Please model this.
Amino acid sequence: MKIHREEARRVAGLAHLELDDAGLDRMADEMTKILSYIDQLRDADVDDVTEPEVVATPLREDEPRPSLDRDSVARNAPAWRDGLFVVPKVIGGE
Amino acid sequence: MSDILELPWTEARGQVSPREYVDACFRAIDERDGALHAFLHVDRDAAEGALPMAIKDNIVTTGTPTTCASHILRDFVSPFDATAVTRLRANGAAIVGKANLDEFAMGSSTEHSAFGVTRNPWDLERVAGGSSGGSAAAVAARMVPVALGSETGGSVRQPAAFCGVVGLKPTYGRVSRWGLVAFASGLDQIGVVTKTTRDCAEVLGIIAGHDPLDSTSSTHPVDDYAADLDKGVKGMRFGVVREALEHLEGEVRANFDAAVDVLRRGGAIVEEVSVPSIGYAIAIYYIVANAEASANLSRFDGIRYGHRSERARTLDEVYFDSRGEGFGPEVKRRIMLGTFALSSGYYDAYYGRAQAVRAKMRHDFARAFERCDFLITPTTPEAPFRIGEKSEDPLSMYLSDIFTAPANLVGIPALAVPSGFDLRGLPLSLQIMGRHFEERAIFRAAAFYEAETQYWKAQPRIVAAKGAAQT
Model:
């Protein structure tokens, strides 16, 4: 599977990663190499496999319990005001 | 008294006071960590404790930063402890420091740490392995008796092998992951690094068990993991994975054959078994793990914690620029691969196919375990490599995990135990894999091999040369 710059750009957009053109080209080359190794999975014989037993994650009771105190959350926040995270304006931007 | 740090934890703890034990660790760190860089933070104010230890820096601890060796979390201090840490503290643990790792545990050498590589205590020009390279080097260099690491595809066992110490990946779900920064949630598991199997068994006993805060932690009863350490291997059945041997070069193969002889002399039955799909492990791993990572790492968005780009003016720029600036190249590469594998048009061909072959591997392992109590391989296909040797070739780095990744994909426990040295004096290691939740049996087998060979007593030159950290 050959990855081109435009495909890398599409994926970087989905992943919310800023990459310049040189970075996209490098990434496309590396992804191409790694995916060509991964392509061997096509050759695997999986015909005799029955679906494995599914062990479901147990659910817990939905009971209230204490959450983190706001001061400890605020200490790690990049921008914080009046008990809220601050972000750039989302609607009707700059 | 000889250096207390040369002894296994389970012997040393009765011989010194908690204060002396912790202070001995600080002296050893002062003497050796400048050369090794196993630690990202050392907590001089650590409470004294009869279990001084290092915690991999992707497991959250109050009182010290938790950076995941990433710029995106370089200032992060967790408001809570991981459950494993809480349980250890309740049993006398003193967290003397946080151990280096590949950024977000993505790597096999710690060369992907944003804060510099950890060097191998046996040869400073070589890698300590990864991603838990700091944890393994800290124990190998006798700076702490015990360390926690984490595993997604071999990140405890591979560095334990490279550093000549014991490393355990427990059964998936055996140890709570509350407070382990998520990489690939279908594979991640906290693991233990120690000098001896007895130390490892006792530490697992502390951290194992169900945790209401981690719904994927198992309710399977916790075993007495050290109960059978002296019982030997007579009559136990070991399967040598035939397909694994095909990859081996001379010295690693000879070392493995010697380990098989030790088991046979103890009365074990050793025979070849086939696990036909084992060669697909790395290909499956890099789809499944990266797909899950691409989702898990979406939480690092510059909004609630972690790095926020100073140049960002819009919300999209906060996301794109904070992540672009904060993540290193290997993390970006994996997020890209994972996002690609899950994206429209490729999902069935990559993620779906990888899960199908993974099911085949589970099936193959189950069949092998009908005939054998254990499966054994070398832990790694080669001795520790040179710093820089593989850093330009991601795929060759990935193949370092070829024998360890299967246990993560299948969910079984596996342990790396030192098996001697190659002609250059570099550590080699034997891997013992067992059935789900049969850690106790693995410890029994490993303890027999360890007692017969005593490789754990060998000390890297950086310890033996100076030895100034006497108590």
Q: What stands out?
A: Chain B is about 35% helix and 15% strand.
